[in-house]
Amino acid sequence: MKKVGVAFIGFGTVGEEVFKLLKESHLLGDNKFEIEFEVHAIFVRDINKKRIVDVSDIHITSNYLDIINNPDIQICIECMGGAAANKMVEIVEAAIKKGKHIVMSSKKGFAHNMSYIIDLASYYNVQLRFEATVGGAIPICRTLMSMSSTDDISRMYGVINATTNYVLSLMEKGDIDMDKAIDIAKKKGITENDSSEDIDGWDAAYKMKILTGIGMKVDINCSEINPVSMNTYKNEKMFKNTIIRQIFYVERNDNKISYYIGPVELEKTNMMYNVRDNYNIVFVDSRSSGTRAYYGKGAGGKETASAMHEDLLDIIKHNYWLELSEKAICEKLNVNKINLVLS
Amino acid sequence: MKKVGVAFIGFGTVGEEVFKLLKESHLLGDNKFEIEFEVHAIFVRDINKKRIVDVSDIHITSNYLDIINNPDIQICIECMGGAAANKMVEIVEAAIKKGKHIVMSSKKGFAHNMSYIIDLASYYNVQLRFEATVGGAIPICRTLMSMSSTDDISRMYGVINATTNYVLSLMEKGDIDMDKAIDIAKKKGITENDSSEDIDGWDAAYKMKILTGIGMKVDINCSEINPVSMNTYKNEKMFKNTIIRQIFYVERNDNKISYYIGPVELEKTNMMYNVRDNYNIVFVDSRSSGTRAYYGKGAGGKETASAMHEDLLDIIKHNYWLELSEKAICEKLNVNKINLVLS
Questions:
Q1: DSSP string, A259-271
Q2: Which of A172, A294, B200, B282 could hold B229 in an S-S bridge, CB 3.0 to 4.6 Å?
């Protein structure tokens, strides 16, 4: 087993779920890379907080330089959430400059600084993955990145805020209003204490910006997005004869981008009619492939963690190739060591 | 622009669509690999048949050795269809043994010889792609291959025969029986002359075998699959109060596989209820990601061609990495040439 040193930046629900996956990842799939993850440090705001996983033998710190300056840490797993976006960007920046690979999950900070972070990672020749920022368990970022070099995407739309979708589904099913549905979602851990970013469409806006950036290579300015809040649909009586969803829609005509985030009334023949609970769906229209859609759970620590775990393995795969080729060349040339960089 | 030599093995609707995509592929996406495809030869059964694309400056041959023995051909694009499965396997085998990379589309021949072809390609260190064999425009093979090394898939199900789905959709919409619907599908080019492989479930069976092989690493014996034909639903009257779909279902419990292919009655709340016309959907349940689904057009030359084009670009990317690293090493060591193999 080859050991890979990692550290967590932030350690809430998502971080703890990723931690669990890492501990059992040698049991999953065929694990042909024979990797064992070693967690060297965890950066948190409150080092005394009780954790649901056993971290007694791991260095818990509120000084992120402990991670940045530790040469044994090759990959940083960022799970800070939206509350401290600026701090998150500061830490990720420092980590990239020290050559550490990054797996990100915090959409707000990433959306606001997307071009900068991507360019920085490229300049420092660092692997950057951010699948978990959009669509939870749906591998939509990877899909769009692959498509954007072989196809032209003209339109993307769907449901990308699982919290709002869960709340609307609850209102449809039972005879409850939005406030009550939000309370239930909070108790189930589907939404955080402040659900206004979800209901008002800001969470979907950040995600739409990320999708547009990678799928259409257009950088939307966050301050120009005006999502329409779902707040006008607070009353369950409105759902008697129809289904309402929070939909994002972005379209490119030549190089002009137009977009919408907010309520849309759906007919029963629409695929999104049956996207319920905390599920997401993203439709992608492209020149070569027509309409495709990707569906999966959008919220929940477990699904986000699974996306981050796939990202981690993707970095491992990339580096494994590098190593394999180095080894082959060293043997061929009868030398001990060369340094090989693929980008 | 770097030139990549390719040849077609078979040249029906799909082949011609791939040909068109290759001719315009430098216009698509960001084309960062700066590739120009050069078609050196086309293997066909009837060299005098009229083609809808201009192939006047290309060597058309009914002797496949012209392709196998041409060192300028690096990638073979197989579009022979299901009618000549044995011949197809014979040609692919010969091409692999000469070190040519392969992009496949014929599901029948591939399903019957899947393990052998994959092992052969691995032995000869040849890149093999077969996205187009299942699900048309849906990138399901790539997705399952990536998942199978990081996750455990317990269940797959959905609609994978677009022809049957198109026929059933027509019956639902209009007041027509199956035979009439099949006639319309034929005129639209959605089905070939003999639609019995579709209606009887054999087409879905081959695809299920391929998905199970790559997603669950289990090789189902084709002769043990007993698909249930849709033939008992020939009468449109049966669709008055319900929707019927041809569904494939495969489940793994420990190492025991159970499966079903045939008619299933769907409720309106089911996601598959709104999968109509020539669309496909594949649901994948896994340990880490819960339920995910992939939706897109399943039949049609254009969609299949798009899948093959993505496969081609995927091989190019792989080889581009190889070249980049070779170049970097040559410069570092001040030598002219090394041979580097990544697998």
A1: EEEEEEEE-TTSG
A2: B200
CA distance to partner chain A, nearest, from residue B240 (Å)? 16
Sign of CA pseudo-dihedral A129, A130, A131, A132: positive
Does B172 reach chain A within 8 Å, measured CB to CB? no
Look at residue B61 and tell me whether its pLDDT is greater than 90: yes
Q: Tell me, what DSSP letter sits at residue B70?
A: -
Domain A152-296, CATH: 3.30.360.10
A90 min Cα distance to partner chain B (Å): 30
Q: Provide the pLDDT for residue A129.
A: 96
Task: Annotate A153-174 with b (16+ C-beta within 10 A) or e (fewer).
Answer: bebbbbbbbbbbbbbbbbbbee
Topology of B140-297 in CATH? Dihydrodipicolinate Reductase; domain 2 (3.30.360)
Chain A residues in contact with B305 (beta carbon < 8 A): 288
The answer to whether A297 and A284 are in contact (CB under 8 A) is no
- For the domain covering B2-136+301-333, report its CATH number: 3.40.50.720
- The beta strand positions in B10-152, using DSSP E, are 35-43, 59-61, 75-78, 101-103, 128-129
**What global pTM score does this model have?**
0.87
Alpha-carbon gap, residue A212 to B137, rounded angstroms? 21
First to last CA, chain A: 26
In this predicted model, what pLDDT tens digit does every residue of A212-233 receive, in sequence order? 999 999 999 989 999 999 998 8
Full DSSP string of A203-257:
HHHHHHHHHHHHHH-----GGG--PPPGGGG--GGGGSS-EEEEEEEEEEETTEE
Q: Please check whether residue A24 is in contact with residue A91, taking contact to mean a CB–CB distance below 8 angstroms.
A: no
Q: What are phi and psi of A253, to 5 degrees?
A: -120, 115
Average pLDDT over residues B45-63: 93
Domain extent listing, chain B: 2-136+301-333, 140-297
Query: CA-CA distance, B254 to A336, in Å (whole number)?
Result: 44
